Amino acid sequence: MLNIINRKKKDSRPYTQAYAFGDNIRMSANKARRIIDQIRGRSYEETLMILELMPYRGCYPIFQLVYSAAANASHNQGLEKKNLVITQAEVNESTTAKKFKPRARGRSYSIKRRTCNITIVLTDVSLFEEILKEK
Asked: What is any one GO biological process for this UniProt entry (predicted)?
């Protein structure tokens, strides 16, 4: 007797999202959130301009992540970079490296080197515009 497995129908829509994940980036999560809040919901091209002009040191690793996510979108899914929008950007705390700095009279102060995990998700909005035009 044959076993018949019911498989779910594949979604007919193509993939519309691409993401990049930065692990253990040497930056405080609060400082990264200050930058991420400025770019969430903006287009890819506008985001690159904002990140280049912001005066913070943490902009460069985030710039690299956004650029990497766009490269993933164009190479893996064949999406156009001009249609991409940052739909999700989150920052989570990661491991903390702890060191001790020697001070006067045999005391020591702890130094915490914080790191964070950053996730950037880009979505192609041109497909959603086509669906809205059909309705």
From this structure: translation
Query: With a threshold of 0.90, does the pTM exceed it?
Result: no
79 within 8 A of 16, measured Cβ to Cβ? yes
Task: Quickly list DSSP for 92-135.
Answer: EEEEEEEEEEE-GGG-EEEEEEEEEEEEEEEEESHHHHHHHHH-
CA distance 13 to 10: 9
CATH match for 17-134 among 3.60.15.10, 2.40.128.50, 3.30.1490.20, 3.90.470.10: 3.90.470.10
119 pLDDT band (50/70/90 cuts)? very high
For the chain, what are the domain ranges? 17-134
Give per-residue pLDDT as tens, 77-87.
888 999 999 99
